[in-house]
């Protein structure tokens, strides 16, 4: 049996796991990343990286690589009624942030570019497709993982630190018996792709439309395409799967008149469930991304939280010369948890409130609910204090700007 000794084992090669491998590429660690995927990531998931993460990527020295691959910028957002009346409009340069834009890059391409950059580390090993589920667990965490390599050879990986980045259904979380708070939202989401209608302007904005029949969001994508997302109502997923473009257009037009000529294709469906672990770290194991906190896309934070937390995690990792010391690893991970968990408790509580609001707008005639939300948006637009906090939340600096 082949033995692979490593400083850091990352289980899962999605956004969070690949970003960590990328960020550590020049830090001097031996890194093994195990990913079971045989296909690209789901392209219908999040693809807008907040300004806080754009700043982080610039610090890692990788931002320009994304632009060279065709990334775009989103510089503002608007909340509108179905007829196009602006309820709240903002641009991110209202805040003194170093990168006042979202990076727009298709979800399925983000992890692949992070992993490509991670491979610049001569001590980086990517094992894919390889399933990690046979964990040797003791009081100190995970001492070894037994896997079968793509060539059929059986191997045992012996890590000093294990990072669980294996998604909502994390096998590492289950093996370590982390407990979590959970909430299953009633309505799944449907996502549609299509060419951007000429009437949808500005080009570099996010939009949310509301009407008596509910809400939807419109996001820019690469190559002049857009993604439209909304909660599935009483009509059910089966209706959407069989729907014609004309039928979809009629539903969309009721919520956003500007989409009356939208040439849509169904991109995917996904049930929405909140899973938030009560611990992020135990022994030499730490959970990141969806393995630690899988949340509703109501505020567009799930993808971004998985990256945002890495700066704090990296700050608390033992140095390469000390990573073999279990006491240093455990202390560092506990320090990370003591800072990150309370922050994310607050963010996820806010996200849950927004998710319940969005979930409720899929129930049919919801004019009263939408009018209340519209009035709240008008208030935020006109109140300087509320507007600033709204922008801080939107850009990924909810607890204030570190630059001020």
Describe this structure in words.
There is one protein chain. The chain has 404 residues and is α+β, with helices and mostly antiparallel strands. The protein contains twelve helices and 21 strands. Helix 1 (15-23) packs parallel to helix 4 (107-118). The protein is globular.
What are the defining features of this structure?
2 domains; FAD/NAD(P)-binding domain; 8-stranded mixed β-sheet; alpha+beta; 7-stranded mixed β-sheet; globular; D-Amino Acid Oxidase, Chain A, domain 2; 404 residues
Label the structural class. Answer: alpha+beta
CATH architecture of the largest domain: 3-Layer(bba) Sandwich
| Text of the CATH class of the largest domain | Alpha Beta
Radius of gyration: 22 Å
Helix count? 12
Query: DSSP strand (E) fraction?
Result: 25-35%
Helix content: 25-40%
Kindly state the number of beta strands.
21
Oligomeric composition of the shown chains: single chain
């Amino acid at each position: 049996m082949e033995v692979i000794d490593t400083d850091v084992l990352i289980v899962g090669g999605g956004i969070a796991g690949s970003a960590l491998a990328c960020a550590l590429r020049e830090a001097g660690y031996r890194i093994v990343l195990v990913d079971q995927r045989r296909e690209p990531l789901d392209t219908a998931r999040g693809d807008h990286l907040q300004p806080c993460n754009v700043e982080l990527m610039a610090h890692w020295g990788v931002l320009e690589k994304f632009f060279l691959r065709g990334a775009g910028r989103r510089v503002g957002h608007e909340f509108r009624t179905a007829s196009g009346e602006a309820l709240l409009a903002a641009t991110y340069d209202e805040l003194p942030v170093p990168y006042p834009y979202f990076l727009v890059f298709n979800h399925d391409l983000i992890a692949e570019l992070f992993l490509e950059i991670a491979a610049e580390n001569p001590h980086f090993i990517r094992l894919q497709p390889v399933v990690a589920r046979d964990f040797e667990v003791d009081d100190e965490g995970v001492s070894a993982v037994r896997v079968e390599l793509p060539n059929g050879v059986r191997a045992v990986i012996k890590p000093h630190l294990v990072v669980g980045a294996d998604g909502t259904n994390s096998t590492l979380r289950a093996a370590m018996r982390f407990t979590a708070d959970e909430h299953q939202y009633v309505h799944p989401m449907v996502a549609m792709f299509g060419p951007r209608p000429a009437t949808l302007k500005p080009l570099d904005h996010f939009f949310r439309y509301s009407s008596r029949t509910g809400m939807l969001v419109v996001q820019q994508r690469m190559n002049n395409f857009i993604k439209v997302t909304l909660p599935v109502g009483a009509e059910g997923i089966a209706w959407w799967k069989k729907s014609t473009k004309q039928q979809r257009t009629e539903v969309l037009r009721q919520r956003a008149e500007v989409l009356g000529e939208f040439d849509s294709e169904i991109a995917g469906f996904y049930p929405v469930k909140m899973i938030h672990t009560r611990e992020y770290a135990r022994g030499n194991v730490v959970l990141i991304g969806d393995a630690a906190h899988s949340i509703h896309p109501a505020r567009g934070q799930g993808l971004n939280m998985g990256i945002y937390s890495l700066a704090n995690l990296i700050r608390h990792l033992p140095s390469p010369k000390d990573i073999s010391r279990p006491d240093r690893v455990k202390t560092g991970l506990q320090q990370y948890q003591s800072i990150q968990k309370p922050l994310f408790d607050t963010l996820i509580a806010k996200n849950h409130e927004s998710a319940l609001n969005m979930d409720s707008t899929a129930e049919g005639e919801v004019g009263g609910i939408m009018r209340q939300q519209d009035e709240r948006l008008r208030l935020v637009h006109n109140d300087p204090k509320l507007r600033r906090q709204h922008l801080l939340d939107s850009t990924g600096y909810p607890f204030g700007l570190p630059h001020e």
